[in-house]
Amino acid sequence: MTPNCLTRTALACLALAAAAPAAQAEQGLDEAIKIEAGKAFFASECQRCHSIDADRQTYGPPLENIIGRPAGSVADYAYSPALAKAGFTWTEGALIAWMEDNQAFVPGTRMRHVGITDPVVQAFIVAWLKDAARSAQ
C-alpha cells in the first residue's frame, strides 16, 4: 500500500469511528420510541387483562418476564387445558403469532381478544415487554 492509500484508509476508518456514536445514538432513540409506543399499545390492547407485575392480580396471567418462560407456567393461574399442555416457550415469534391469532396458535385457549395484526404494533409491544423485563432486573 502506498502512503496515500494508507492515509485515505486511515481517514475513512476515522470517519466511520466518528460516525458510530451518532448511529448508536440514533439507534437508541429508535429503540426508545419503539418502547414508548409499545407501552402505549400494551396499555390500550393488553392491560385490561394483563399486567407486567407478577404481584398485581389481573384477569389474565401476568406477562412479567414472559420471553423465555414456558407457556402455561404461572403458578396458581387457571390456564385452559390447551395452553397448560401447549409445550412451548414464549419467544418473540411465539408472542407475535399469539397476538396475530391466538385461537389459531393454540386451538382451545380461553383467551378472547381482537387480533393485533399490524406487525409494527406487534414489534412495539414485544420491544416494551423486553424492556420491562430488563428494567425489572
Q: How do you describe this structure in short?
A:
The chain has 137 residues and is mostly helical. It has four helices and no strands. It has a single domain, classed as Cytochrome Bc1 Complex, Chain D, domain 2 (Orthogonal Bundle), CATH 1.10.760.10.
What does this entry look like structurally?
By secondary structure, the chain is mainly alpha-helical. The chain has a single domain, classed as Cytochrome c-like domain (Cytochrome Bc1 Complex, Chain D, domain 2, Orthogonal Bundle), CATH 1.10.760.10. It is built from four helices and no strands. It has helices spanning 3-45, 81-84, 92-105, 119-136. Helix 3 crosses helix 4. The longest helix is centred in the N-terminal third of the chain and has 43 residues, at 3-45. Residues 1-20 have low confidence and may be disordered.
Uncertain segments: 1-20
Main CATH class: Mainly Alpha
Strand % is under 5%
Shape: globular
Q: Portion of residues in helices? A: 55-70%
Number of strands: 0
Please, what is the oligomeric state?
Answer: single chain
Q: Which structural class matches the secondary elements? A: mainly alpha
Please give the count of helices: 4
CATH topology, what is it called?
Answer: Cytochrome Bc1 Complex, Chain D, domain 2
- The CATH architecture comes to Orthogonal Bundle
Mean pLDDT: 83
Q: How far apart lie the N and C ends?
A: 51 Å
* Rg of Cα set: 21 Å
Q: Give the CATH superfamily.
A: Cytochrome c-like domain
The tally of structural domains comes to 1
Give a short account of the largest sheet. none
The run of helices and strands is HHHH
Pfam families: Cytochrom_C
Signal peptide: 1-25
Keywords: Electron transport, Heme, Iron, Metal-binding, Signal, Transport
Protein name: C-type cytochrome
